[in-house]
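Researcher: Let's do a round of design. I'm pasting the structure tokens now; please hold your answer until I've finished.
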């Protein structure tokens, strides 16, 4: 009939029987695993008025609810505690957290002295800072070093850190900033470099450079040698003053380390390259004996079964070959 509602109830299976639990029978009770692992604050120390966060981490802690009780003790030995606040925690995954804003401490004690250990320092020096206080034991100091902006005349914070009053004082160190001096650009160039004699072990080798518009400047000579892996290692250094558009100096060539192999005649500028970088290959001209050389650059994907593919070729004669990926 239209508009008539009928409720159908499923019939229970027949017959309905129960089974009593026998005394002494063995059975396994499975419970969800819940374990509290770590409870901590997000920082070790706070200033009065800061917001602190209490965190509880564990396994299978579920949705909660959890409450944190914040307690305080005026006793240095921590024997007597009083409750300050009760916080409801927010659960995310296996972590529960709640925030608590520390009350601002009532005025107590005072700073009696704050001074630098010296009144003059050179750029880059470390300057001592000394602070004394009364009735302020264990308090945290918010220390700031300011400097005057030469353009605006305003004082701006250059560095800031925190210190703690211990035994009525605080001792700190501030590194004075170094002065950055911009060297004037010199419109000069190195025209040529050459060996005056052949490099030999346990002997000084002379090097000479021809320059333009660099008289009176200092020129550094670096002597390098490749190791067994093809990496260039500095083995000597010399400094000369450019006079008459030339500079020369000598460096002692140390012997090869015991058991070391002679350097490879082929050397890459470095062992790893990224896309868009220049790949420089250096070849010993004595090894070439005046002949041309060709190097093929290949790569493959870092997965099993991938094959090598050629991506560039380097050709040259008595010098450096250069290819760009």
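Researcher: That's everything. Go ahead.
Model: Designed sequence:
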């Amino acid at each position: 009939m239209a508009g008539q509602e009928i409720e159908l109830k499923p019939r229970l299976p027949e017959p309905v029987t129960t089974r009593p639990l026998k005394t002494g029978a063995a059975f396994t009770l499975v419970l969800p695993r819940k374990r509290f692992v770590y409870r901590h604050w997000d920082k070790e120390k706070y200033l009065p008025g800061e917001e602190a966060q209490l965190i509880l981490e564990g396994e299978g802690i579920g949705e909660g609810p959890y409450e944190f009780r914040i307690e305080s003790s005026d006793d240095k030995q921590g024997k007597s505690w009083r409750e300050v606040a009760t916080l409801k925690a927010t659960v995310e995954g296996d972590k529960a957290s709640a925030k608590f804003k520390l009350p601002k401490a009532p005025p107590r004690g005072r700073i009696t002295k704050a001074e630098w250990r010296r009144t003059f320092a050179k750029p880059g020096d470390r300057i001592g800072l000394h602070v004394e206080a009364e009735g302020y034991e264990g308090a945290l100091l918010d220390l700031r070093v300011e400097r005057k902006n030469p353009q605006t005349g305003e004082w701006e914070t250059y560095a800031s850190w925190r210190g703690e009053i211990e035994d009525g004082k605080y001792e700190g160190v501030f590194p004075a900033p170094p002065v950055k001096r911009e060297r004037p650009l010199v419109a000069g160039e190195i025209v040529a470099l050459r060996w005056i004699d052949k490099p030999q072990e346990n002997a000084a080798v002379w090097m000479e450079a021809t320059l333009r518009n660099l008289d009176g400047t200092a020129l550094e000579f670096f002597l390098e040698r490749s190791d067994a892996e093809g990496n260039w290692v500095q083995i000597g250094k010399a400094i000369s003053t450019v006079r008459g558009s030339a500079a020369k100096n000598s460096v002692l060539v140390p012997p090869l380390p015991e058991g070391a192999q002679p350097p490879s005649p082929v050397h890459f500028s470095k062992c790893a390259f990224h896309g868009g970088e220049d790949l420089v290959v250096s070849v010993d001209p004595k090894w070439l004996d005046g002949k041309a050389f060709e190097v093929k650059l290949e790569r493959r994907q870092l997965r099993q079964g991938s094959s090598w593919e050629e991506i560039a070729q380097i050709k040259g004669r008595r010098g450096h070959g250069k290819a760009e990926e």
